[in-house]
Specification:
Elements (H helix, E strand, L loop, with lengths): L4 H22 L6 H8 L13 H14 L2 H6 L6 H11 L2 H5 L7 H10 L2 H22 L2 H20 L3 H18 L1
Helix pairs in contact: 1-2, 1-3, 3-8, 8-9, 9-10
Length: about 180
């Protein structure tokens, strides 16, 4: 049976969403192709009609997830200002975002995996973070301040997600946001 191009595109999109969720919840090494396929509603072998390998699937899924991330949507806002950047960071450094590992920013749960990833994964991440840095540098008027804001935001979210105590999580997020607000 032949599928329409639209059906193939929809299946590919489901696979990418499933792979991104699996990677963020389990890590790249532990996420299984069969589990991703089942979540997307296809057979394990069906994945290989869309992607040549598990690595290719994850590279595409991570790039897509980065592209749709809160930080990228913020970065690509028309005529981004420092005030808009601070407002976006208040959403990024929120308890709701910290608790939404599956649907939130992929960088904190995948940073170690990204550093061990193949070239396609690392290049995709590098393009993403370089675009953030370039835009934020212009908005903030400082390359070091842009790098600091990006790294502090991602690091604060990473640490907040690793904490058990709700109070400590809230403290990490709110105090990092306050610090960034003073510096930006």
């Amino acid at each position: 049976m032949r599928y329409t191009p639209q059906h193939k595109a929809e299946t590919r999109a489901r696979l990418l969403r499933s792979a991104a969720r699996a990677a963020k919840c389990s890590g790249l090494a532990a996420a299984s192709v069969d589990g991703i396929a089942a979540d997307a509603g296809i057979s394990g072998g069906g994945v290989y009609h869309h992607f040549a390998s598990k690595q290719e699937l994850f590279a595409a899924a991570i790039v897509q997830d980065l592209e749709s991330s809160l930080l990228m949507r913020l970065t690509r806002s028309p005529e981004l200002t420092a005030e808009q950047l601070q407002q976006g960071l208040s959403r990024y450094l929120s308890v709701e975002h910290a608790e939404n590992v599956e649907g939130g920013c992929p960088v904190p749960p995948l940073c170690a995996d990204l550093s061990r990833g193949d070239s396609a994964v690392r290049l995709g991440f590098e393009a993403w973070i370089t675009e953030l840095h370039q835009t934020w540098s212009v908005v903030l008027g400082s390359s070091p301040l842009a790098w600091g804001a990006i790294c502090q935001s991602i690091g604060a979210l990473l640490i907040a997600r690793a904490l058990e105590s709700q109070d400590t999580r809230e403290e990490v997020l709110s105090e990092n946001l306050a610090d960034l607000s003073c510096r930006l």
